[in-house]
Amino acid sequence: MVSGGIYSGKFGELRKLFNALRLRGYRVIAPKLEDGVIRLKEVTSFDEVPYGWEDIQAPGKYSVREGGKHFRHGPDAPKRILYPPRLELFRLRPDWSVEYPKERFPPTALFAIKPCDLASISVMDRVQGGIGDPYYLALRKKLIIIVENCVEPGATCFCSTMGTGPEARDGFDIAYTRLDDNLVVFRPGSDLGVELLSELNIEPATDEVLRKYYDALKNASLKAKAPFELERLPDELELGLNSPVFKEVAERCFGCAGCNMVCPTCFCFDVIDEPELDGGAVRVRVWDGCFSYTYAEVAGGNFRKDLWARYRHWVLHKFAYWVRQFGVFGCVGCGRCITWCPAGIDLRETIKSVVEWVRSRGGG
Ligand code: SF4
Ligand code: SF4
Question: Containing domain of residue 92, as a range?
Answer without folding.
Answer: 7-223
